[in-house]
Amino acid sequence: MIEFQHVSKQYSPDARALSDVSLSIAKGELVFLAGPSGAGKSTLLKMIAAMERPSSGNVIVNGQNIGKIKPTGLPFLRRNLGLIFQQQRLLIDRSVLSNVMLPLLVTGASKLQAEQRARAALDKVGLLERALSLPQALSGGEQQRVAIARAIVNRPQIILADEPTANLDRASANLVLDALKAFHSVGVTCVISTHDEHELDGATRVIHLQQGQLVDGASA
Amino acid sequence: MKNWFRQHRYALGSALAHLRKSPGGFLFNIVVVALALTLPFAGLTLLDNVQPLSQQLSVDPEISVFLKQETPRASAEALAPVLRTVLNDKQAGITFIPREQALDALKNKSGLADVLATLGENPLPDSYVLTLDAFKHSVDAGNVEPIAARLRALPGVETVQVDSAWVKRLAALLGVLRLALLLLAITLGTVVIAVIFNTIRLQVLTQRDEISVSKLIGATDTFIHRPFYYTGALLGLCAGAVALASVALALGPLNAAIAEFAQLYGSQFQLLALAPLPMAALLALSASLGLIGALLSVQRHLARMN
């Protein structure tokens, strides 16, 4: 499903984010990316989402080579991905419900259909009663769960979460992780980056990165 | 098709929602764009009113040849073949107007019957009206002048008057005005595009987060661009409507002044607002200018964001 073949990423001559990384992630896996800040976790996730292109090597996602994909093809690739960021990137002037409806509206779903599915997604993360609130009225943990609802509302094949629990207290972080694990349990491939070793307890697969290099966990 | 309409409805709704968030800024932009549009719209209204006036007047070159008062009728009538020779134009129209007929026409036309009656005898001479077919399509009144000079030299001729010259000059003047208006419209159209370009640029900047989130969740460029296109077109459309309304409102006081002036010439001339069809065309043009401004701005600034 996701394959990195000798991938390097160099932002500038003295800023190398990834160095000759090769790994593969199969469909339905739950994979944690671990490593300290600056290890290259975010760059790796951004490459899967085609937000960055490799300087060398190939990144294959769902059979598509990210380095060769045309700009017009990017939206269609991303509709199969659910992206969750450390900063939730919710639209603060729109209700929680509107935020979650957005991925459906961009694909041309009707407003009614989008609202029904958005409510269902909010229900799954336990925030249906906050549907009409503005994001700023929610706690950090709740905002992150809204971001998860937005990521899963399109029923993506892959969820990419970049340090989703970084700014949360332990209880909120557990709620967020539980939600992500719940989606993995129904067959969604999840790739979650973290620098918190506690979150790796019980993880079936962990990919360790350090200074842009793969330390272990290249394959299942 | 249903999906296409849905996407457009969403884009229009999104554009309106953003405009509702900053109505003051939107109204200010409408005023600025409307100011730029008002001048060419007013000029067009003026041309639209004056042009039919010039078209109603004869532009066929006519020459009036007035004979001397003492010329006997027989000599006056004998002048017709001489005139044809001078004109050297087989198609030329030569109409003899006896002094009695001219007096009757003057009485009927000017309403000066009482004044003319006090004169006792007819002060008007016999005359000829010559219509020159060869110069029908010429706008240059100068072409008629050499003929007029030869006519003046004929025995028994008192005065020769080239009647169509001023109409030709008016037509030429209107041509110049039309060109000036076109240049003005192009200049101010560019101003409108520039204003809307800048307005959309600011909108793109304020909605940067929304745009980047939309891109990440799979929105196509068209989906992202479309609300901005609607904003530009709406801005142009509203400004066009305001400009047309301003011109229509200005016609009231302007017509009051014109009425006084026109009465001095026994005319009922009034400026009328444009007909619905040209108005609709101007509104469509205004919306198109807005759309062009938005298109250029979005292409430039979103390309930079990419």
What spatial order of strands do you see in the largest sheet of chain B? 2-3-1-4
Poorly predicted regions of chain B: none
CATH fold name of the largest domain in chain A = Rossmann fold
Biggest interface and residues each = A-B, 25 and 19 residues
Number of helices of chain B: 10
Q: What is the element string of chain A, with H for helices and E for strands?
A: EEEHEEHEHHHEHEEE
Count structural domains of chain A.
2
Number of helical elements of chain A: 6
- Described by the principal axes of the CA atoms, the overall outline of chain A is globular
Care to count the β-strands of chain A?
10
Q: Which range does the strand content of chain B fall in? A: 5-15%
List SSEs of chain B in N-to-C order.
Answer: HHEHEHHEHEHHHH
Structural class, from helix and strand content of chain A? alpha/beta
- Proportion of strand residues of chain A: 25-35%
User: What coarse outline of chain B follows from CA principal-axis ratios?
Assistant: elongated
Largest sheet of chain A: 6 strands, mixed
> Span from first to last CA of chain A?
13 Å
List the strand order in the largest sheet of chain A: 6-7-8-3-9-10
Name the assembly state.
Answer: heterodimer
Spell out the blueprint of helices and strands.
The complex is a heterodimer of chains A (220) and B (306).
Chain A lengths: L1 E11 L2 E11 L4 E5 L6 H8 L7 E6 L2 E2 L8 H5 L2 E4 L11 H10 L5 H14 L15 H13 L5 E5 L7 H16 L3 E6 L10 E6 L2 E4 L4
Parallel strand pairs in A: 3-8, 3-9, 6-7, 7-8
Antiparallel strand pairs in A: 1-2, 1-4, 4-5, 9-10
Helix pairs in contact in A: 3-4, 3-5, 4-5, 5-6
Chain B lengths: L1 H20 L1 H34 L5 E6 L5 H15 L5 E5 L1 H12 L2 H6 L8 E5 L13 H8 L4 E6 L2 H42 L1 H9 L4 H43 L12 H30 L1
Antiparallel strand pairs in B: 1-3, 1-4, 2-3
